[in-house]
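Minutes, project check-in

Agenda point 3 was the complex the collaborators sent over. CS summarized: two entities, 1177 residues total, and the question is how they sit relative to each other. Sequences were read into the notes so everyone works from the same version.
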Amino acid sequence: MSGDHGHEHHIEPWGPHDWSHGAPHNSFAPLVMSIGFGVFLYAFANIFVMGGLENISSMAGVMLGFIIITIGLIIWWRQDMSFDGVYEPQGVGAPFRNIDLRKVAMWIFLMSEMMVFTSLFSTYIRYRLGIPNCEDVFLSGEWVEGTTVNCFEPAAHLIASSWFHLAPGAVNTFALIVSSFTIVLALKTAKMSNKKYAKKYDIETANVDAHRSRKVGIYLGSTLFLATLFLTLKLIEWFVGFPTPGPLTDLNHGHSEIKSLFAEGYTIHANAYTNYHYDTSYHGGHDIPTDSALYAMLESGAHPGGMMMADIRVSASTFYVTTGTHGVHVFAGMVGLSYMTFKALRGGYGPSNAVSIEYFGLYWHFVDLVWVLVFPFFYLY
Amino acid sequence: MMNKRSLIQTFAIFVIIGLALNLAPEADSLPSGIAGQSEKGCICHGAIPDSGVTPSITGLPSTFNASTTYTLTVSFTGGPSGTDAAPFNLGGFNLAVSSGTLAAVDERVKIENGEAVHNGIDDDEDNNGIHDSVEAGGEPITSGNDFTSWTVNWTSPESGSTTFNLAVNSVNGDGAASADDKWNTMSVSVSGPSSGIVAEPLEPADPFVVLATLIIVSGVLLGAVLLYTFYRANPDGFNWESFAPWITGWLTTTDHKKVGTLYFLAGFFFLGIGGIMAMIIRVQLAVPGNDFLTQDQYNQFFTMHGTVMIFLAAMPLINGFANWLIPLQIGAADLALPRINAMSFWLQPVGALLIFTGIFSGAAADTGWTGYAPYIVSETAHTGTTMWVAGQIMLVASSTLTGINFLTTICAMRAPTMGWMQMPLFTWSIFVANLMLFISIPAWGVGLIQVYLDRTIGTAFYYVASGGDPLLWSHLFWYFGHPEVYVVIVPAFGIISEVIATSARRSVFGYRSMVYAMAGIGIVAFIVYGHHMFTSGMSPTLRFVTMLTTMLVAVPTGIKIFNWLKTMHKGSLIYRTHTLWALGFLVTFTLGGISGMFFPSLAMDTHLHETYFVVAHFHYVFVGGTVFGMFSGIYYWFPKMSGKMMDEKWGLLHFLTAFISFNGIFWPMHKLGVMGMARRHHTWFVSVDEYTNIPAEMADWNLFISVSAFLFFFSNFILIGNMIKTIISGKKAPADPWGGWSFEWMCTSPPPTPSFDPHNLPVLHDANEYHESEPGGFTKWFAGLMVPEDDSEVSH
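CS then shared the predicted structure for the full assembly.
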């Protein structure tokens, strides 16, 4: 089909594309990816129903959904692999004249992302301030042993209680900040003109492309590695826990492991959570000299206080879904970074389309920034 | 000096005003009493039912047999009758049944309009405690008033269930209404044999089977039309070899015009499906006590009707217009992100499929389109609710991508020299609508994800038992939901502005004020949503604040109405079909706006919130506003899109039938609402029990509404027929059939692909009289903040 203005109308829905003529391009990716999302949402709702494991065989459907989405992404990227920055549409209207459309779109997209996290923080603020804090309830003494009370138990109460608990979150914070740095290095390396690049690394101009591809690939790969580290540590913190052998055992009140939040009972189904099983007089009268002594008494069952049972489902839901939504954003970034690393190693990024890294970087910095807010609100305070 | 013509016009206007006043809802609202009630047996003493009076019905079986006569005893205890009352005129009753027939056993009871009432002969008119008939020397008349217990025969129907509504009076016997006269009411239901057991001439239709069948039939018809379109395009090439690339082209297209057409197809398809649901609802509501839909089925039908009409019909149709026209109007080759645009579209049918899974399994969402917590996360909500939420999540994703695309396109891709204040008003309306949607929809998306997780893995965001707050959902929903209703009406404003200006053959009056009014609506949209929650227990301070801000909405809307009128006033109006729809829009939307002004007032809202007055209001603005606006747009731009002229005679017929039948549906609903007919209820009863039922004359209105609804439904097939006829055999359309002057009229009909040559974009010379040098001061300042993408930056 030929276009009406003498341009080719590209009917190559599986890619790759010839980008020299610009849009429109046909693509199967939107249809395939939409079906994948639908299959995923449908199958996932069949596995769990109202908190109960209903039908584990639907896991196959979830996998199928992921596979279809992946196929869609592969089609999408197969069309993009050939993009070398020759066709980069720019704004013509004020105030974005001569600004890349992709840049404008990315900033507008971040506006919506801002609203997503604003809504999650609204939920958090509503419940954090609107439901009495578990510690306050516990100290007030207005509870009966054996009867569940509704209260808000911040995850920080557990996490910030010891350096070991905080360790995964703390390492993650640094991992994300460093990853924001590595992606800027990737951008800088990709953007440098050939002449300057050759001079800086003292190589022949002819070798610049290969050298640059490797270098950009390494920087993007490092970013990918740090993102993977982030999610791994998060899963360890949520579900796995880690050992504290040798001298660390002493520092950890004599325990040889740090339990995961899940193992501590901090779960979305915890309607009889008993973290407050220490002596009620501890805070008031201070009969027990140190934390360690208290823990020892708890271990031996000799503590004098009662056990308050709390329904912390709302607190745990807020924690897991907010940090989880951030985790999903990191995962989405990892998916993007895998493609970009691949493309970089094949020589896909040079001065003419280094901005692609910049625009992904905008998203990545945003994810980093959100973590900088999530961390103090959910892990420290 | 008035000439004859002006006199006739003035006279006609007065006649119309007079008729309108006569038809206007009467102001004698509940519960102070309704004219005509006292004759029917129950003089409802006191304003509210008194719990001191206990009505009862004995003799009812737990389940009744078909066509059997039961003797029921109706009685009451408590109230003044039992204590110091004179022996006469102790009380009264009224018993209404939803099915079966009542018969009097003795002279104490009489049957009126199928309802049993006490025989109200007053045998002690002078109130001296002695029967008048005894005073006259005869036997005492034991009239029905003298008792606290009566006997009635009831013959049961063949099947189904029967509701008994009983109202009783307990009075002091002085014959005059006074403060110590009490009354109360009760309702009881008895079920009988199910229809399967009793042999019946006709099996009652299962509404779900009806709906599913009609959906499938609509789908098959749509497929047939598409196939026929393909055949007509090239009758010789009707084979798979040419069909495969044709259908692949449509499935993979990223061209804004083709995606726009896909949006139109999806939008019209779901408009039909939503219409079928509305018709089934109106069948149910046509007569009192109908059991075509059960309570449970009715909940699903009105939920799906709302969801389908707003998210699967109105939004795609708006996107169809936006996709087609935005690049054409601003002189861009395509949208900024064509592939993302295709993604926006394809998320919608897949999401729709998820939403509809419940219909085909018979357990669709029954939460209302608002999906209020905590019901939406409860086990009792239907299983289809989870899929409803999942589908909505996909629609949220779709709207977000649409928002990115259109905001980027309108911000950055306007043709050279087209400043913000030279943009066509339709483009402005899409810009404002998308900005509102884009900022608000993430809040709802987050709420939906919370609900989805609550319903699947069992998080506890809205579990009240764990401390979850249902009001949080309402806030997240209405923070989105209120801007959303403006998202569907503002594009209609844009269409009407274009149509009226073109039809009046002049530029629109007060272009700048039109823009500022739309922007004002966009801003106000975010600070008024509390008015949806007046009766939800929200903070009284917030209620008061949103009451004031909501009243503000009338200001920009009023400005727009004024400007449209003023545009016609100094213009020279030419009456095309799209002009007629625009004029119709002005009437119905203004009426909807006026009824809307009742709701900001806290007291009025509390009174009217749960009645058909609300239903009338939002259908006047959704249908009389959005849908009429879109009909106008279809007649206006269809020649541009298809390259063929539509038949104006059919268009006139469509306008007349649809406009009249539309008002026939929703105008009486104002009256029903004021009379106390409650919305969201699966049926209604006509009886003297004025708290749960409505007066007898309302039965006629409900039937009238149902008939009008079917007329309206079928009148829109004239439009569909007109479109098909036009595509097949319409006259060829010129580039500018109506004399419009925005960029889309510069293209051929239909426009080429890409719509404009990307290397030779059109240049705007003079849009209208307000053309100024561009950019303005603010734009210059903003542009200073931007880093240009020039080569010098790359080299450092």
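Noted in discussion: Chain B has two domains: 42-191, 253-745.
Follow-up: revisit at the next meeting once the mutant set is ready.
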